[in-house]
Amino acid sequence: MRYILFFIFILPSICNAQHIKRVEPPHWYTGMANNNLQLMLYGQNIGKLLPQVMHKGIKIKDILPVPNRNYMILDLEISPDAEAKSFDILLRGRKGIVARQRYELRERRSKSNQRATFSSKDAIYLITPDRFANGDPENDEIKGMKEGLDRTNEGGRHGGDIQGIIDNLDYIKEMGFTAIWINPLTENDQSEWSYHGYATTDYYKVDRRYGSNEDYVRLAKLAKEKGLGIIMDQIANHCGHQHWWMKDPPTKDWFNYQGKEFTGTNHRKHSLLDPYVAPEDREIMTHGWFVKTMPDLNQRNSILSTYLIQNSIWWIEYADLYGIRQDTYSYPFKEFMTAWTCAIDTEYPGFNIVGEEWVDDPGVIAYWQRGKENPDGYTSCLKSIMDFPMNMVLADAINEPEVWGKGLIKLYEMIAKDYHYADPMELVIMADNHDMSRIYERLEGNFENFKIAMSYLLTMRGIPQIYYGTEILMEHPISDSHGQIRSDFPGGWKGDQINGFTNRGLNSDQKDAKGFLRTLLNWRKNSAAIHDGKLMHYEPQQGIYVYFRYSDTETVMVVINKNEEPLELDLSRFERFIPEPMMAKDIIRNTSTSMDNTTTLSLKQKGAY
């Protein structure tokens, strides 16, 4: 007689695909200053299940209540001696284990929480990644993503990527830059205008049209080996309207004005400081959406607040960041911005963050800086902020005729307002960026005025930032077109007839501009007076503005001369810096000059000395 045996294997009821779709942060680290971790799990009805963490160094402190049962928010405590390893998170139902999620606790990069970061020793190169260089054409089109390649559309995707930046790290280094600020690389899976990066659809993922998370880490590693730090552009104020949260938010207050008609911000930054402000005006400034496609996040929600703080810390650790640039700094709930900056400073003391506050009033800018004593008692941990007030007078000061109240006196008076700031040396100064007309355009294509602007930017107090393409005098015919302001760097695409990297096809002024900037930037790398020195400036007279940067070991004299005709500058006015005859080196012209406070300095042509 034959017997047929049937073996039936009974497996636990585990179906990850059905239950756990997302876990954020995707991994975490041992040895952090804050030993708490908030874990967001997302999947159909997982909020009804019971979690169990299979790591003896981690315990569940709390399950944070959210009305949407598709979320589970775990508040975990990580023991200081917790082992770095992978482990399981189990979700149990009535009949046992319903889902199993593998999670990883990794070693922190360094046992010391001190981390190299940008400062006044640096010169920052700003890149819009979609428009810089296409290093990997294979990622130009990604199946399933909403927007594909269209170089004919100034608001479309042009194909620049992380590999393009990697391919040109030597170029950036040889120019003399020491840090790279890259406009956002995180996923922007929007239907249109997704290239700029400011409408995030996934806070933990690099957009696949730029590459992968691993590519970003590789970029940071290779850049660091060449003496270049990576500054990440982050956005805490808003996300993209096609972020996965929008279809299924965790709470009813995850977004400001959630479920209501679109209400835009009034952009009235002064309302946040105004002692007489109508509360309704202040609320619209903070709660209003930036634009219809960028939902305003409600950072007063404690779960969202922690999510955003952890996200920033995760990227610092994961990609070994050199700094963060925070977009639209004053728009979020301002108490959150203090919590965010202070949490990062606790984890990485001294780590530099620069905030964007686009106003022309130093009093408003200063309000957000660490160490500022504000009348309303508001405190901050933000070290650096962008010096838009200086930026807004720079072109006019150089372009305008030297008459009462115009010309160089505008720069002089703006610097004189540094008394507003807790630390003006930490300001990031710039001639332009990705949101405004390029400096060569604003200087009306005057090459000598361009060299004056760059000389000022690279010798003034603060941390200079230069936008990609400035070195080759990039222009744009329509002044308010962001797509043209962020145009493709020539030579970044196969088949480009002009190549800004190699100088092929550049005109004489463009080549001269590159050489001029390369000279100043590489000299600046080793100037103690520029890095940490003090500043003293003299009132502009007869179209000449003189200032000194000085330290114990070096003195730098900067002369900005707007006169078209040759002129003799009387040096007796500067006796405190030239007490006796001495030799000085002209950095730009590579010549030596004898200086004596009883003589004059011959200024043979308009420009900077």
Task: Write a short abstract of this structure.
The protein has 609 residues and is an alpha/beta fold.
Number of helices: 15
Write down how many β-strands occur, each being a DSSP E stretch of 2 or more residues: 26
Q: Whole-number average pLDDT?
A: 95
Strand order of the largest sheet: 16-15-14-13-10-9-18-17
Radius of gyration: 27 Å
Principal-axis shape: globular
N→C terminal distance: 107 Å
- Name the quaternary structure: single chain
Largest sheet: 8 strands, parallel
Structural class, by secondary structure, is alpha/beta
Helix-residue proportion? 10-25%
Strand composition percent: 15-25%
Query: Uncertain spans, ≥5 residues at pLDDT below 50?
Result: 1-15
Task: Please write out the topology.
Layout: H1 16-19, E1 22-24, E2 28-29, E3 36-42, E4 50-53, E5 58-64, E6 71-78, E7 86-93, E8 96-106, E9 124-127, H2 162-167, H3 169-175, E10 179-182, E11 186-187, E12 202-206, H4 213-225, E13 229-234, H5 279-287, H6 302-319, E14 323-326, H7 334-347, E15 353-355, H8 362-367, E16 384-385, H9 388-399, H10 409-416, E17 428-430, H11 439-442, H12 447-459, E18 463-467, H13 482-485, H14 508-524, H15 528-532, E19 534-541, E20 544-550, E21 555-561, E22 567-570, E23 582-586, E24 591-595, E25 600-603, E26 607-608
Parallel strand pairs: 2-8, 9-10, 9-18, 10-13, 13-14, 14-15, 15-16, 17-18
Antiparallel strand pairs: 1-3, 3-6, 4-7, 5-6, 7-8, 11-12, 19-20, 20-21, 21-26, 22-25, 23-24
Helix pairs in contact: 6-7, 9-10, 12-14
